[in-house]
Each structure stands twice: as C-alpha cells, then as structure tokens.
Specification:
Mean pLDDT: 74
Shape: globular
Radius of gyration: 24 Å
Strand order of the largest sheet: 1-2
Number of strands: 2
Helix content: 40-55%
Structural class: mainly alpha
Distance between the termini: 57 Å
C-alpha cells in the first residue's frame, strides 16, 4: 500500500509563522490577503537503486524483437505522448495514462487480434529510426583542454550574449526560439507553472519603462524566489536528486531559470546582475540533473528493449546487422497483425513519425539547453576574466529546417529527403544519418562539408562562439550560393 503523505503548510504561512488550514487550491489566509498560495513539493518515495552499466557497455542499435511487444509498449514517460501506457522505469518515473478508447458496437469474436491504437510495427519502425539520437553513446559528455585566454575575443562573447537576449525576446513574441521548441509547451497538457511565470515575467520585462521598472524588477525577484523555493532540495547523491523530478519537469525549470538569468545578467541593473550571478551555480546544477535524468531514461529504454542473444540467434553465430534486425522486427510485427493493407501501412508510418518526432523534440531540447547553459555560464565568467574548466561538449542536430518544422510530417519528410540524398554516397557500413549530428565543440568538420545555410541558427551561433565570427563569416560568404545567413545580433 502506498504511504500516505501528510500535507505541509503553504510557503507563505510557513514564512510568516502563521497557522495554515492547508486548503486547496489555496488556504484561507492567502485568499484573504490575495497572495499567491504555494505548497512545498512533496518528495516522492525513491525506488530501490538499480545498478546501471557503463555507457560503453550498452548497445547503440536499440535492437529488439518487436513480435513480442504488445500494443502501446512505447512507455517512455518523458515523451509526453498521449498514447503512452502506464509503466514505471528503473529511474522511478511514471508514464501518462492511455486515453480512454472510443465506444464501439460489440464485434464478433475472431482469432485475429487487432491493435486498438498503435501497432507494433509502428513502434519498431519508430525505435529503429530514432537510434541515431537515442543511443546511449550519443549522450556521452566529452571534455577537451581549456583554450588560451586570448582565443575568445570580447566581440565574439558580446555577440553571443546579444544573441541570447534576442532569443528570449523571440520566445515572448513568437512562442519559440532556437532552444525552446514550438511544440514543447504549446501542445498537450504539459505547461508547467514555472514556464508560465517565466513567460509572463519576460513579457513584462520587454514592456519595461523607466516609470515601471521598479515593479518589473520586483516581479522578477518574486518569480525567481518562488521558482527556487518550489523545487525539491538537492540531496547528497546527484543521481537521487535527478530522480526526484520527471525529465520534462527538469527541462522546464532549467528553461525558466535560464530565461531569468539571461534577462537579469545583462539588464544593466547592478542588483539584478548580482542576484543572477548568485544563482549561476544553481543553474549549472539543475542542468546537470536534467542531463542525468535524461540519461537514466535512455539507459532504461535501451536495457528494457534489448533482446536476449540466445533467443534470437545461436550462440555460435554472430549477431545480425542492426539494420537487418530492425527490418526483420518490423516485418515480424506486420505479420503478427495480419493486416498489410496500404491504409494500415500509411497509418503505421504516420504513428512512427509522430513518435520519433516527439522523442527527437525532447531529446534535442535537452541537448541544446545543456549546451546553452554551459556556454552562457562560461562566457559570463570569461568576460569577468575568470576562466574555469571545460564543462564538456555534447552532440546536437545542426541540420537546418528540422528544429523549425511545425509538425511531425514536415520533420519526417526532411529526414527522408536527407536519407534519400545520401543513399549510395557513404561507404558500406557508414551511417549517413549522423552527418548533421555534431559535437558542440569539435564541429569544425561541418564547415568543410556543408554550407552555412544548411545548418540552423543555433548551430551557427555556437560555431561563431567556438571558432570566431571571422572564420564563420568567411564560411558563410564562401557558401552563400546556397543561401545567405546573418551572424551578427
């Protein structure tokens, strides 16, 4: 039986040392005073720790026997997909519920079992097509020696900061930017309070005047204090701290604090800058917890869906090629359903594209946010003359158009165009899918293989910060026949 957790007094009553009736959604004292009533986050009971193997021991192919899977096995909770079943991963996260099936007239009993929503073949196809960004090795953070202190001119770092400020304003005006995807908070039921607060506070900030700036600063201070106070306290083990929140909640709080940090660091107010600087260690810690939480999800996905070798091929034979496994799995799943009509094939393709797109949106959002936090903190300290150790670099998708795709079909169409164009170019065994999946710091190869217009704004901004405006501008001019781009903010 689940343990009953006693409701604690709200934050306002606790701070004022007054009795709280613990009413919902707000207590009577907060209602009488017309103040925001917030209750502290209750710590969830942690599941037993599961020993996780090292990243290099996990298989990257994400191979599995799709014929043994039931409909709706897609149980990754951090996708936020409406069709995910209830399940719990080793990291302790609970997946959302299935939507209730539509009522239909009773059907005569037959020997053939039809999947109600998502066939196994669509799950197999989606997973096989997502291994290029879900494989555990793609989540490895590598490090490089610290650069010379004169290798990053002030003009480059200043342009980077101006770009960040422009991106925050764009999020307020357009609802998305190069690190907050248009579908992340605009669809489904995932719209955390911290993101709502950050959006309204940023909106107020960009209408600030000398006459109302005192009120705007108070709003920023109150919202940041509420954000920090509402989060569970960190414990000694970082892995336990990461497991206290769902990965999407980790991402939301990092997004919110990053928005506040960029606004306050470069506002010009001494008080705002000092307050933001004091929270830079918190921002870095939250970004680390975000990455650890995502990595735990990816590890659970890989381990739970990997087949046992003895069940799929004899011990004296070598494992089949990853693409052959994915193909045979999809074929077996299609045969199990007993329906190979074009209509079901199109439906399976659409479902697989939707699953893969949702996985990629969240995965890419995590990658870009972690990179941006690392570069933002490092750039600020560098401008102050403080050079620290390299936080590491992670991989992200640089292909222009994928991040800006407004729907899963548009995203999938671009992916298919890329794969069709690359077919036959690479040597046998090569993985053409990784051409635009690059490490954030060792990304100079993309400037030799692609045009500046073929990579998106986030990638160009990171390249400008890593390699300098002059070098990236030279690359943009040399490849301007494929499109002109702007690098200066």
């Amino acid at each position: 039986m689940a343990r009953i957790v006693k409701q604690k007094a709200c934050i306002a009553c606790t701070e004022s040392k007054r009795r709280c009736d613990k009413g919902a959604p707000s207590c009577s004292r907060c209602d009488d005073r017309d103040i925001d009533c917030r209750y502290p986050v209750t710590k969830r009971r942690r599941p037993p720790l599961v020993q996780q193997p090292a990243l290099d021991t996990l298989t990257d192919t994400l191979e599995f026997d799709a014929s043994s899977l039931e409909a709706g096995i897609w149980s990754m909770p951090w996708t936020g997909l409406d069709f995910a079943p209830t399940s719990q991963l080793a990291s302790g996260f609970t997946a959302p519920q299935f939507p209730p099936p539509a009522k239909s007239p009773p059907q005569p009993t037959t020997q053939t079992t039809h999947t109600p929503q998502h066939s196994t073949s669509s799950v197999a196809s989606s997973l096989a097509g997502s291994k290029w960004f879900l494989a555990p090795s793609t989540w490895t953070i590598d490090h490089c020696p610290p650069p010379a202190q004169d290798s990053y001119p002030v003009t480059v770092m200043t342009n980077f900061n101006r770009g960040l400020q422009a991106w925050i304003r764009r999020w307020v005006m357009q609802g998305h930017n190069p690190f907050i995807h248009r579908s992340l908070y605009a669809e489904r039921d995932h719209f955390p309070v911290c993101i709502q607060d950050a959006f309204t506070a940023a909106s107020a900030y960009y209408t600030k005047t000398p006459l109302n700036e005192t009120f705007v600063y108070r709003i920023l201070d109150e919202r940041v204090a509420a954000l920090v106070a509402s989060q569970p306290a960190a414990v000694g083990d970082d892995s336990l701290s990461a497991a206290m929140l769902d990965t999407r909640d980790h991402l939301a709080r990092v997004h919110a604090l990053l928005v506040y940090t960029v606004i306050r660091l470069y506002d010009g107010s001494v008080g705002q800058r000092a307050a933001a600087e004091n929270l830079l260690p918190t921002l870095t810690l939250w970004a680390k917890h975000l990455w650890d939480s995502a990595l735990a999800d990816v590890d659970s996905l890989s381990q739970s869906w990997l087949p046992r070798p003895s069940e799929h091929f004899p011990s004296n034979s070598a494992p089949p090629d990853s693409r052959e496994v994915a193909t045979s799995a999809a074929d077996a799943a299609a045969a199990a359903t007993g329906n190979n009509s074009d209509q079901h094939t199109r439906q399976d393709t659409f479902e697989a594209d939707l699953m893969a797109w949702n996985l990629w949106v969240l995965s890419e959002s995590i990658r870009r946010t972690w990179i941006l936090v690392s570069v933002t903190v490092g750039t600020y300290y560098a401008l102050k003359g403080l050079w620290g150790e390299c936080p590491g670099y992670a991989q992200f998708t640089a292909r222009a158009g994928l991040w800006d795709a407004a729907s899963a079909p548009q995203w999938a169409a671009m992916r298919r165009e890329d794969l069709a164009r690359k077919e036959g170019i690479h040597a046998p065994g090569g993985d053409g899918e990784r051409d635009f999946f690059i490490p954030s710091m060792h990304s100079e190869g993309i400037m030799r293989e692609a045009a500046a217009a073929e990579v998106d704004e986030f990638a160009r901004h990171m390249l400008s910060c890593m390699w300098g405006l002059d070098r990236v501008e030279d690359w943009a001019l040399r490849t301007s026949s494929k499109g002109k781009v702007s690098l200066i903010y």
